[in-house]
Design a protein that fits this description.
Blueprint: H1 13-18, H2 22-27, H3 39-51, E1 56-61, E2 66-67, E3 70-71, H4 78-83, E4 89-93, H5 102-122, E5 125-129, H6 152-155, H7 162-176, E6 189-192, H8 211-228, E7 234-238, H9 247-250, E8 262-266, H10 279-296, E9 299-305, H11 315-325, E10 333-336, H12 357-365, E11 369-370
Parallel strand pairs: 1-4, 1-10, 1-11, 4-5, 5-6, 6-7, 7-8, 8-9, 9-10
Antiparallel strand pairs: 2-3
Helix pairs in contact: 11-12
InterPro entries: GH, GH26_dom, Glyco_hydro_26, MANB/E
Binding site for substrate: 131, 201, 268
Family: Belongs to the glycosyl hydrolase 26 family.
Length: 380
């Protein structure tokens, strides 16, 4: 094992509509936006903030659910098979919590619940993506010109599907309030809805809704989960894709500091996708995220990245690690995408025998990167 080392009141309808006062925004700095956040959620926030000064946690999507050529094995991940430790951050997805039969949703809840609890009991951190199937039309979570409907305006207050959206959020809330570790405490999660919203590939993307409606959707989602459903174990993460060059562009659809705990970015394009590298541009975008977080009193993270099939066998140290260490940034974690259990080419972390394993072990052994076995007690 390697070296271990409020707002003042609940936001009501008026605050939801007009945003926070100056005093409220000031009091939101350096702590969760939920004034009723559980002790464990507050501790996670503080510890992520503290650790980001000298370290970065490594994360992998669906790491313990399945991997390259396997599914459902207990206490297994491809990363652990290579390094001896699970990733510090495990990514899951709420995609299966709507648009399906009640029986299928209940089965998904049970599987997710076990993943979340197991990660907490081991001392790791859970982050949640939401590839949310369009509740207004067919097409799933992607935008498909022939079938997809621009749904955001229908989901916000006053929209035709607002009540249906509230029902979906109640399903999310039911799961969130049901995940308790062996210590009896609710498990904190980093909830990252509506990611990559600056692109057009998802139905909530920029070409398919106005800035005003997107902000309204975000604020309602947070307010309903936190204030109406009493979900007090979420930290809320805002993460566009990499289609920005300035802070102003990054913040174009930002809902406000009173509505976000963590700022992040998804970026595959600058880090080798399709053989294209513009690492200096990627670093500058990460710097924008990190500097805004420090200025606003928020957490920051590199919420998604990776190189599919990892054909560059030194990508971990010469591209990713070098970028993360540049510019003295403070990033809580970096997460690479999933390892498909069936595809021979769709994977983003090495498995035993994969060509980048030697370099990944150098990445793992670097004092800057922390995996699950390195973590202190994150919830105290």
């Amino acid at each position: 094992m390697r070296k271990r080392l409020l707002r003042l009141a609940q936001i009501g309808l008026l605050a939801y509509l007009v945003g926070p006062t100056i005093l409220e925004a000031k009091n939101d700095r350096n702590k969760p936006i939920d004034p009723k956040a559980t002790k464990e959620t507050k501790a996670l926030y503080r510890n992520l903030r503290k650790l980001s000064r000298k370290h970065i946690l490594f994360g992998h999507q669906h790491a313990t659910e399945y991997g390259h050529g396997w599914v459902g094995d207990s206490n297994r991940s491809d990363v652990k098979s290579v390094t001896g430790s699970h990733p510090a951050v495990i990514g899951i997805d709420f995609s299966g919590l709507s648009g399906r039969s009640l029986e299928a949703i209940d089965k998904t809840k049970a599987l997710l619940r076990q993943q979340i609890i197991d990660t907490y009991n081991r001392g790791g951190v859970t982050t949640v993506a939401w590839h949310f199937s369009n509740p207004v039309s067919k097409g799933g979570f992607y935008w498909i010109d022939t079938v997809s409907v621009a749904a955001v305006s229908h989901l916000i207050p006053g929209g035709s599907h607002h009540e249906k959206y509230k029902e979906i959020l109640r399903t999310v809330g039911d799961l969130a309030r049901s995940v308790k570790g062996k210590d009896g405490k609710l498990v904190p999660m980093i909830f990252r809805p509506y990611h990559e919203f600056d692109g057009g590939w998802f139905w909530w993307g920029k070409p398919h809704c106005s800035q005003k409606d997107f902000v309204s959707l975000w604020r309602f989602t947070v307010s309903y989960l936190r204030d109406s459903l009493q979900v007090n174990n979420f930290l809320y993460a805002f993460s566009p894709d990499c289609l920005f060059k300035t802070e102003a562009e990054y913040l174009e659809r930002y809902p406000g500091d009173a509505w976000v705990d963590m700022v992040g970015m998804d970026n595959y394009a600058d880090f080798g996708r399709n053989g294209r590298y513009d690492v200096s541009a990627g670093i500058q975008k990460l710097k924008i995220v990190s500097e805004y977080a420090q200025k606003a009193g928020k957490l920051a993270a590199f919420t998604e990245t990776g190189l599919e099939s990892i054909p560059d066998t030194t990508w971990w140290t010469t591209t990713l690690l070098k970028s993360l260490k540049a510019e003295k940034m403070r990033l809580a974690y970096v997460l690479v995408w999933r390892n498909d259990r069936q595809s021979a080419t769709h994977y983003y972390a090495p498995y035993p025998g994969q060509a980048s394993v030697p370099d990944f072990l150098r990445f793992y052994q670097d004092p800057y990167t922390w995996f699950e076995a390195d973590l202190p007690k994150m919830y105290r």
